[in-house]
Amino acid sequence: MRNVSTSQIAWLVAELCLRASFELPEDVFQALQRAAQREKSPRGRWVLEAVVRNAELASRERLPICQDTGLVVCFIRLGRDVHLDGDLQEAVDAGVRKAFLEAPLRHSVLADPLDRSSNTGDNTPAILHLDLVEGDHIEVEVLPKGGGSENCSAAWMLTPGEGEDGIVERIVEQIRAVGGKWCPPGVVGVGVGGTLEHAALLAKCALARPVGWRHPQVRWANLEERLLEAVNATGVGPLGLGGKVTALDVHVEHYPCHLASLPVAVNLQCHAARRAAGAI
Length: 280
Description:
The chain is α/β, with parallel strands linked by helices. It folds into 2 domains: 2-20 and 65-145; 148-273, CATH 3.30.1330. The chain contains 8 helices and 10 strands. The chain has helices spanning 6-22, 26-38, 42-61, 88-102, 147-151, 163-178, 196-206, 218-232; strands spanning 2-4, 71-79, 82-84, 127-133, 138-145, 154-158, 186-194, 247-257, 262-269, 276-279. Strands 4-2-5-10 form a 4-stranded mixed sheet. Strands 6-9-7-8 form a 4-stranded mixed sheet. The relative contact order is 0.20.
């Protein structure tokens, strides 16, 4: 059994929040550069070049990539041989609080969803997803999720007979419906299976996968390619101004489900596809 202080977790979460706020992951940055080179629309290419310059400036000057510094979604893989000396949620929130107050970063969390005056003042609480794994280590990944892209996400309970074609149809319909509201191009996370709430979680988890990493199973990798082609064929383009690059990538995660159901969810992530990971 390995003893780990929750203060270590708080420190790591704070560092990851700052890194994610100021530095795009290299895979995302390179994908944006490639998108700027292949975009045929002059307006779309101008947008992408501006997005790349913005990311470079944010990293160099230690400024937020986007003014919406997001609600922090935290994924933790906790080894079964780890003993914590305190509460995990409190540790994560302490790390978020430290980063958002000291940087400072914009506070966007309401204590009461129906009370616009109930801002918590420190961007807590975070959303915490916990997986228990073998070993004595702790892996932490943060995804600061902006409101614009999150608001454009959706979930459906399809009939099993709609199958893959139905999945593609719903995702494309959603992309067309929201247009530039999610600040494309970004990453499209798709969850298939489980139950209504689990499909949504799968879609969120899909956003943590690096751009360009295909699903290890051929069937699902092929669906990712099909969806990417279909989304980019909508012509929505960068910031909804038209063009061939609407998504940098599409990632699909799946889970077993009831034979009478086909749950599907999509979680959109804008061009500021922020994430950072570390371990203790």
